[in-house]
Design brief:
This protein is of the alpha+beta class and about 190 residues long. The chain has four helices and eight strands. Strand 3 and strand 4 form a beta hairpin.
């Protein structure tokens, strides 16, 4: 199922400031190697873990659902353990995230909440198919693969950071623009830098 040329909503997990800096620096490094990534691909993009992409549900209802989930949570550890490639609807590079029980439980909770009101959900983000990851590039060409492998070997992985909030976004696929609607720090208060 493709969502190209549509507007979709997404529930994303937000990294702590150290994780965000690490991934942003990696995007810059990939960009210097000629690999389109991060804000070069989608204006306004920021490092994140996508839990769900869907249409329908109504924006305000979905935002309220995400806020309700985030208020009950505490920051959880994430381990970025590898660079990998997806060959689905093109070639994409990602940082793989170790699938821990708390992370998988959070994903199932988000999927159930958004699935109860969504018209359609991207099947790759359903619990039976989801691979926890942080996207590096969705516009890879075969000639980029050696540079991805080289940079991946130079990284000191695994790296540990924290997931410290959820975000609700709208993506205009036609204009390739992210719109961050709201961030919800875990625990319902404080900042994402804690």
């Amino acid at each position: 199922m493709t969502f190209r040329l549509l507007r979709t909503y997404a529930v994303i997990g937000l990294f702590d400031k150290q994780g965000e800096r690490f991934i942003t620096a990696l995007w810059e490094r990939l960009g210097e190697a000629g690999i389109p990534c991060g804000v070069q691909e989608y204006r306004g993009a920021r490092p994140h873990v996508t839990f769900s992409i869907f249409t329908g549900c109504g924006k305000e209802r979905a935002i309220a659902t995400v806020a309700g989930i985030a208020k009950d949570l505490r920051p959880m550890r994430l381990e970025l353990d590898r660079i990998g490639l997806f060959a689905i609807e093109g070639l994409s590079a990602f940082l793989g995230i170790t699938p821990t029980r708390p992370l998988l439980a959070l994903h199932r909770r988000i999927d159930a909440a958004t699935g109860s009101c969504a018209d359609r959900s991207v099947p790759y983000y359903r619990p039976e198919r989801w691979i926890p990851h942080c996207t590096l590039s969705t516009a890879l060409q075969k000639q980029h693969v050696p540079a991805i492998r080289r940079i991946g070997k130079e990284l000191s992985l695994p790296r540990r950071f924290r997931l410290c909030g959820l975000g609700f976004t709208e993506l205009d696929h036609e204009r390739q623009r992210w719109s961050y609607e709201r961030d919800f720090p875990f625990g319902g208060q404080g900042s994402l830098s804690e």
